[in-house]
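Look at one such:
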Amino acid sequence: MRSDAWRRIAIGVVFVAALSAYTTLLAYYSPRVPTTASLVALAAAVVLFALPGAPRLRSWFAPDRRRDLGGAVTGGVLMFFVAPWMVLANHHTDAPPGSQVVFTTTACWGAIIALAWATVLFRRGQRRAAVVTACGALAAVVGSAVILADWERPSSFSPFVRYPLGDVWMVAAGLAFAAGVWLLVRASSRVRGGGTLLPGALAALFLAMTASLTQGGPIAAVSALASAGAPMAVFALTGAVAWVAALELARDTSPLGRGAAGLPSLAAALFLPAAALSLLARLEPLLGASGPDPLLWAPVAAGTLLTLAGALTVMAAAAATRADRPLPLRAAVASLAPALIAIVGMALPALRATLSWNPGDGRTLDIAWTLAGAETAAGWWALAVAALLLAAVLSASARSRPVGLAIALFALACVPAYLAARGVPLHTWNTWLAPEVQQDYGTPYAALMFAPVAAWPLDASVVLSGAGLALVSTYHAIVGVRGRTGQPPAPKSGEMR
């Protein structure tokens, strides 16, 4: 059991590293290499990893296996062709910017996987686990957004504002990716002999070669790949490693054989590339590649902490909510109060923006405006911490006390980290301001500054969440000690399931 856990951790590390490298290379190669050529390279790389299943390929055509073959082929096409095509075809030189691509193709995909798993849990009757999973996904997405919004200041991170159509396509690709993972893992759970990956990979390669006819044919695609050189091969291999590792993470390794029970692990891993890429930027000076460091490390560290808290909550949701007693009604109601206050605060001003523009040709512009809490890290941070409080309350199960305590402590650490994220906007681009002005952000011609304004509902929500998390942590610790000394907690009245 322990060796299997270490194996999954190793696969998760490989997945995060490969996906981070693939996403970084994507920003460079997708505008320079034809989309169909990149798809051919990616599918061919996946086929290479799937070749060990070649001896089992003939058995797929047996009459009783055709349904499984259809699922494997459809899953492979969605995961290895449709999802990458939707991303590559909608990414240009700096449109959307790299930070937005990382957000929409990692954190947003992780949220899709997590919500799909929450739906499965809900249908199985595990309602607590479903709610805790959704709460963890919210926290992890917010943490990733805070990290990416602080890669530079003023930031180019303006998801669903500056390039809304491109961002929507990137998120839609996540739906195709999630469906592909689901189909491939389900087919794998039905076919114990293995070899599930190869039919889907071959189908994706066939479609990629067919699509290359629109851009000169397979020969032109191979020529484009050859001209891109070895780094293009690295791009394709990192993508293939990431997709294969994703399938391994999503597989169920328990003897119960429930199919895609590893989806929480995959979702948690998808939340981590933003933090991993930030760590790489921190390590660059140690590797002799020192240069300008645009990252704002205090909010980046805070966002990383919130991301880890959310990822842990998603992974531990099912184990932490094995209810051995009814949930007190007053505890459930009280845990919702900070979230309701945060929602009110998200509609009120939270940041003040000041812009001074002077392009040097006699024109000037000096304006100021406010951003509502929903447009800032502070607003979403308050809601995320409130969601983690709800998750910690729902995880108050004596059968998994250490897991519930870990969730509560991680969430409690995010409360003071709110101060670091208090002045972070989640978009700098505005649809009502002339693009000519906004394109000068980050140059000597435009000075854009943000400052927090009084937002007592958000502050109050975070403080109340912190108080609640402190109580939950204390409860876990005290009751855990009593349980070890053979003193069960006294029953309480007013409880409900």
Summary: The beta strands are 327-328, 349-357, 365-372, 446-452, 495-496. The CA atoms of residues 28 and 487 lie 61 Å apart.
